[in-house]
Structure formats: C-alpha cells, structure tokens
Amino acid sequence: MPAVTVENPLVLPRVEAPDPTTSTARPVLQVVTAPEGYEGEGFPVRRAFAKINTKYLDPFIMMDQMGEVEYAAGEPKGTPWHPHRGFETVTYLIDGKFIHKDSTGGGGFLGDGDTQWMTAGAGILHIETPPEDLVVSGGLFHGLQLWVNLPASDKMIQPKYQDISGANVKLLTTPDGGAVLRLIAGEIGGVQGPGATHTPITMIHATVSPGARITLPWRSDFNALVYALNGRGTVGEENRPLQMGQAVLFGDGDSITVQADATQESRSPNLDLVILGGQPIREPVAHYGPFVMNSHRELQQAVEDFQSGRFGTIPAEHN
C-alpha cells in the first residue's frame, strides 16, 4: 500500500496529542464489518458504512473500498457511463491507475496517492476506466470512493473538479513518529489539506506502525468515523478490536484514539485507516441511485432531466 509516504516519519511536521486533562475522548459507539459486493463492470467493493445508521453519517452518504485486488492480464474493470446530481464524489487511488472522463470534456488520470474531487452539482455524466496498459498487463488496484453530500443551496451549482496530486497531500506524523498522516482535505493540528470542500470535513489516510498509538484532536462539532483498510488494532480508550474491512463510529468528544497491534500479518505490515469527520448538514436526504437530493420531487426531476439529456452528452468518441 504505497500511496504517498516517507521512510522516516520523524522528518514530518507533528500533530500534538490533545491535553488529556482538558480534552474529552470520544467513546466508541459501534464497530461494524463492511458487506462485500461488486460495482460497475464487476470490480469488488466493500461498503464501508453500510451498517451504520445514516443519521450518524451526515454529511457523508457512503464510502466504498475498491479492491484491494491483484488483476491478471485482461481483468481490470471500471464503470460504464452514469449520471450524478446533488453531491460530491471523492476518488482516492492508493494503488494502481484509473482514467476519468465526463460529459463536460473534463477528466484526468489518477495514479498512486492521487485524488479526484468531483462536484456533480446540477448534473454530470462520467465514466471511470483502467488505462489500456493496465488492462493488458494486469496489476494491483486499490482505492476508495467517498460520497459527500451538498447542502440544498449548493445542489444545483455547476459541476467542477479538483485534481489533488499525491505530491500535494500534506504529510504529517504523531509526536513519536509512529504514524504517517496523509491529510487530503480539512484541517488538523493547525495544518490545512489541499482539498476544498463545500461542507467542512476532514479526510485523512493514516498508516500506523505496529504497536504505535495515536490520539488526534478532533473538532467537537464534527462526527468521527474510522475505517480499516488493512491490518488490525484497537480503537478508543476502551481498546475495542478493529481489523481490515471494519468501520468505527465514535460518539461526542474532541479527540480520537487508535492503536495498531504489535504484530501484523506479513501482507499488511501496518494498520492503514481512513479517518473522516464532517459538520452535519442536518437537512432532509432523498437518495436514489446516483442522485442525492432533499425531496422525492427533486429526485423525480433529476430522473426526468437525465432522461431528457440535460446532464450533457457522452463525447462522440465514446458512442
């Protein structure tokens, strides 16, 4: 799991642990195992937050872990053309290559550690596919797609993109250098990540070394979610067990704690986590397939607009 990293975390800026005498540790409310399935043309996914009540996810809608899978030659798969309206998709590629194209003529290439932040807004058609050389050779593929809701005031804005190169992700560590923290969006420890968001959120990919314990400050007005990409450890002051493919929901407070087990599997030498939090929008959510709106009538309008071609057209070379 290379993503973006450094050999010696102690060269990185450090996020200081909050003072335990003045901070409140967030309790662990729930640890759940993500169900597995298939998406698009048949690539394997884990539905990271599928077993967590949606009222605790706000402003997030869902998150899929794509892979980790080692494709043979000819096996890499993507998604067909499909629409979105009313939210943002965040595609974070840890291992592999991916190409994105859309009905506005935009898009780009994602490699190890790159993120594409797509604001679907009023509506867009897009496709995500592996490049031809990866299809021919096969290879490792591993990534995430996170859906972030938009408030009603922003649901019909014009689509736009942020291409966040892995080289621009903010790399941080903990006081003892026991973790590499890749800050993709939001703020932690006074450091701002490169991703700009409509709703305040923080998104971190953390690699925690065997036996290391991290305690991070966390905004009290944010929710707090952790998902284990690889490895095993414990979460919270309660030391609840956590392993690959499990998600954690934390309660109220202003700090979160995670520890990696001292012994890890050879294929997962560290505990890799996605750490997420955001300021709840607290608006009605109507969700139907690729549309996330505030009412059933708005969903009906989205379907009508899509069927009427108002989301744009597929470029001629793809027809």
TrEMBL record:
InterPro entries cross-referenced by the UniProt entry: Pirin (IPR012093), Pirin_C_dom (IPR008778), Pirin_N_dom (IPR003829), RmlC-like_jellyroll (IPR014710), RmlC_Cupin_sf (IPR011051)
Membrane-traversing stretches: none
A Pfam family this chain is assigned to: Pirin_C
Record-annotated Pirin C-terminal domain positions: 204-312
Domain Pirin N-terminal: 43-148
Protein family membership: Belongs to the pirin family.
PANTHER family xrefs: PIRIN, PIRIN-RELATED
Protein name (record): Pirin family protein
Organism expressing this protein natively: Streptacidiphilus cavernicola
Classification of source organism: Bacteria, Bacillati, Actinomycetota, Actinomycetes, Kitasatosporales
